[in-house]
Amino acid sequence: MYLDSRRSFLKGAAFTVAGAAIAKGVFTTDAVAGSISESKFTNTPDSLSFYPPLDQWEDFKELDGADWKRGGIGRHGVESEDNPDGIKVNDFMIVPTACSNCEASCGLTAWVDKKTFTVKKYMGNPLHPGSRGRNCAKGYATQSQMYDPDRLAFPIKRAPGSKRGEGKWVRTTWDEAMSTIGKKMNDTLKTGDELSRKSIMFHVGRPNENGFTGNVWRTFKQDCFNSHTNICSSGGRTPTIQWVNDDRTSPDWANAKLVFLNSSHAADAGHYFQQSAGFIADARKKGAKLVVMDPRLSNSAGIADLWIAAWPGTEPAIYLHLVNRILNEDKVDKKFVKKWFNWEVMMNNQKYLQFMVDKGYISKVPKDRSFDSYLNMLKELYSPYTLDFTVKETHVPAYKLEELYDMFIWAGDAISSYFWRAAAAGNRGGWMSGRTGYLAIALRGAIGTVGGTFFHHWHVISVAGKGGSATVGQGKRGKDIPKVGVWNELSWPPEWPLSTYEMSFLLPHLLTDVEWQEKWKKRGLNVPQKLSVWIPRMYNPVWINPDGFRWLEVLKDEKKMELTFNLSPVWSETNWHVDYVLPVGLAGERHDQHSEATMPARWTSFRQPVMRVALEKSGWKASNPNRATLEAHIKAGLGEVWEENEFWFEMGFRYVDPDGSLGIRKMWESKRHPGRAVTIPEWYDAAFGDNLPNLKKTATTDTRYRNAEYPVYEYMRDHGAWMEENNIYHAQEREIKEDEHSLVSHGHRYDKHHVEIDKTTGVITAEAHGDAWKYKDGKKPIGIEVDGKKMEGFASLDKKMDFFSEWMADEWKWPEYAIPFYPRNEKEKEEMVHIVSHVNHKYMKEENSYALNTVFRLPYNIHTRSANSKHLMEISQNHDPVWINTDDAKRQGFKRGDAIRVRIVDSVSGLE
Ligand code: SF4
Fold first, then answer.
1. Which of 116, 351, 564, 901 is the most buried (most CB within 10 A)?
2. 453 lines ligand 1 (CB under 6 A)
3. Last residue of a domain, one of 396, 424, 451
4. Phi then psi for 531, rounded to 5 degrees?
5. Domain range spanning residue 763?
6. pLDDT digits (tens, 9 = 90+) for 817-855
């Protein structure tokens, strides 16, 4: 059917120029290819969802888009020796990868022109379960990032004799940089003391790596992993950690009846938004209602069935108003709540019940410990969140709150929501937004249901760091990597024991705060006063952190940061002040396994260097298999741009521990080819194969791969995405498998002799090893018995949804924040200052003072990694600098286009 060579292809083209297909504006290669979808030429496909079939990806011919404008082949024919003015035909190899311009990891495909070996365009990957062939503008902009004329094309280092920040650079080689850095790391690590294991610091930046570098640093025995998470999303993660010890929400947008967006974030401004928007559109086609809670009239809010603009930070009052009505109007899904709330834990904690009485939350301790008494207690607890109270506190009109409640009840247990940034991250105490919001959703039983809301660890694959069986030293899934066993106070300062993630933004302050260092040294802690190596991987704190100048001071101080290097594809303000800038690639120039919770399924994408894949498929071979990506990029004219996987494999094996005396070398030594570092195919074949049984079975039985040296790797190389498991609902109810001698929970087998079941709570525990999270008796919780059935339960200590966070109340001594709550009066606002937003109206007494929100924007510069895309810069810069409600504008006398002056006052400190 399809033509084998360019020559016969051109002949075929000439034959059918006059054929029927021309009438459709599409050229087909033979008479039987009657429909456009079967055509090799896709300039005017009859459907936007058209995509070349997988078996044509290595050789797909498409009419050149620019030439098509000249009138098409109907007028000009196809370009050939005999017809040089004909329409050009591109000969593509389509290579899958994954976008790296935000955390969604949508599938991409690079369309590599086989004649020039350049990527002509990036399109979606239709095999990706979450993005389904679609991308946002940032995804397609990958091509402009790849060929950015200003990108860094080779490693550079600070010119000898110059100072950091002077801007004097010299070109260097990867080998020189790695030798210098490796020696410095070796000198640090070989002292072997505690301090040495806190003196190298790595800031992960983005894109995600699903555990890869975390694994690198474990093998280097360093507690050095740092991230920006505490700035951007801890407030969104804390609620799920308190509820179920899970990291974040996982909504089933596509099947929801009520899509309940807490901010525009999920659908048009941030996390996973492209995939979420697609699923939300699917749900709306089926009749779902869309509610957007956002002070800004965002794109999502503009098309919502209901837009709720609460005063920033007061959102918890709305959720608790819903809770009040759900409880007192008998709309609770009692079956779910009785089965999955940790109500017994709370009713057994008399001390806490008395605390609630003392605080005036409830009038008396419940008469007994029954479920009915529990529900009655909740009714009383939340009855103060009346309509009047909520309208006054949130400034949302009553009719909107009524409408929201009606929608909530109408949707039953198909309410899909996502709590992340916006209210959660933008306000002091914003974490209470998710804590209260989940309560309203869970009371309706919309947890883990079709169209409901769930938690991410059921839906995410994280195996990038688990290729250990391909190495001499790590063991399967890294089981032989020794424990690090130190605590780095620079990323986890003792003053913030409840910080959900590393306090990376404090680093320059802690490094220079001698008083702070001395305080903890006197108490016996070994606090580092300097770093021997600091690695801000794709991270630019000088620009994105509010105290960038403080970072500059420390960056320039060679006594505080002795050696610094950035693994960075682009120039940045931070790069300007480091010792080495080592260029690594973006979406189409690096390997990563990447998965996110965008649907009730476990999918992963495989990000890979597309030119390397294209070259290898064309018969090219790297001279050094450990540097194949670097060599491929040089060959393809991208410069000496490398990737981090191969970089760290080599660092661990060859440079940090050259003689193996630190025990690191063997961790990265290839098991199959001892004497050299592990390679990409070896590592990912193990990482995918050891952890994803369905993928392994598919790859190793597929006739195309089963005889391949690395079948699982090669399967992923060719597909770019995989769905391990679909339709994952009610996962907490998964039964624990049992035989005569053992129980199997979450894939782990436990000897029955060491398993116990708590008679009151039903929690099933087993012997804990290492640093496992332990239940009351020091054992590890592995499941729960409910109504005689042993199930895996949630990931919390008591395996249920923790309405009552006992560890927060009893161990950490924050009882007032151990349940979902919002201050009901001025006195409580004074007492519970940690959960009153810094922009609460109580702080805004000055006439004409407003809470200033950042405006909606296309997040073109997420984590600065897309900073080199001029295309994105241009399309994102046409927003008005200030949006204001038209009523407010009228009152102030502002007209569109006026210049206005904004005076910004920190409502807590009073600083202007
Ligand atoms: S949503 Fe994110 S991952 Fe998807 S295409 Fe856009 S930038 Fe890339």
1. 564
2. no
3. 451
4. -115, 135
5. 735-792
6. 999 999 999 999 999 999 999 899 988 888 878 887 765
